[in-house]
Prior knowledge:
alpha+beta, two-stranded antiparallel sheet, Arc Repressor Mutant, subunit A, globular, 5 helices
Amino acid sequence: MNEEQYDQASNIMKALSNKKRLQILNVISQGEPCVTSIEKKLGISQPNISQNLSLLRYLGIVEAKRKGKKICYHIVNQKVLKILKLILPN
């Protein structure tokens, strides 16, 4: 591995160390929810969810997909998906 790969791995692990991001990723791992669905399920404010999703998109963990007027999210980083399955209860 080169330095860039270590930096990327470190940044992903930092992102996963945040409780709210783990909760958001757990919801996303069960489907392709939009922000309002995540908000209702977790009780986290929309601005907070959007801020966390922005970081997760920047790190290449999730991607957004437009469905009509809504923007829904799915996990694209398969390594992160495997980590979530290992550390989170079903």
